[in-house]
Automatic annotation (TrEMBL):
Pfam families: FG-GAP_3. InterPro entries: FG-GAP (IPR013517), Integrin_alpha_N (IPR028994). Keywords: Signal. It comes from the Eukaryota. This is VCBS repeat-containing protein. PANTHER family: SENSOR KINASE-RELATED (PTHR46580). The keyword Manganese does not apply. It comes from Rotaria sordida.
């Protein structure tokens, strides 16, 4: 139960894996109560904590990821009205996709290749086919990858676009009011951001690298 001091609720703590690094929230079991997913960088897992709707949570359930899970995003990747999980694996240059079941549990990971040292990811529909796609920022490769979704939880091979130095974070939105999603990338190594304008077909203004 949450307690209160004079001004703020007293914290409640819950166990995770080793060196938790990134977190996202979503309703993973469709009970209209938010749940938590955490990446555990140094033991190659994610922890899922299902919420009771009163600010408390069940003990973690863990799932194996690739090496060095550093970031997490959630979305319905196969149009079954269940949230799925995308995990960025920094040390083995992959993303892991976990398909969600309606009870808050997840299938084993399916892995897709990325560029060097991926750091973060976002999901959205880049080609207007109503299926969610993935964009990944690659810190070591100075690139982003776009993986277009087929709507069944699987994805096409990556398309690669150059960025500034040490692409670390990524966000999406319609930046020029043409109803097409664009991408913003934070470049840690050269103190810049990169903007890639979308064509609405899953490709972007900078030419993809071979």
């Amino acid at each position: 139960m949450l307690g209160y001091d004079e001004f703020f609720p007293i914290q409640a703590t819950y166990s995770t894996g080793t060196n938790p690094y990134s977190v996202a929230v979503g309703d993973f079991n469709n009970d209209i109560r938010l749940d938590i997913v955490v990446t555990n960088l140094n033991n190659n897992t994610v922890s899922v904590l299902l919420g009771y709707g009163n600010g408390s949570f069940a003990d973690q359930v863990t799932y194996s990821t690739g090496a060095g899970p550093i970031s997490v995003a959630v979305g319905d990747l196969n149009n079954d009205n269940q949230l799925d999980i995308v995990v960025v694996n920094f040390y083995d240059d992959t993303v892991s996709v976990f398909m969600g079941y309606d009870n808050g549990s997840f299938a084993n990971q399916t892995k897709y290749s990325t560029g060097s040292s991926p750091w973060s990811a976002a999901v959205d529909d880049f080609n207007n086919d109503t299926y969610l796609d993935i964009v990944v920022a690659n810190y070591g490769g100075n690139t982003i990858n776009v993986l277009l979704g087929y709507g069944n939880g699987s994805f096409a091979n990556q398309m690669t676009y150059s960025t500034g130095s040490n692409a670390q974070s990524v966000a999406v939105g319609d930046l020029n009011n043409d109803t097409r999603l664009d991408i913003v990338v934070v470049n840690y190594g050269d103190n810049t951001i990169s903007i890639l304008l979308g064509y609405g077909n899953g490709s972007f203004a900078k030419e993809p690298l071979p």
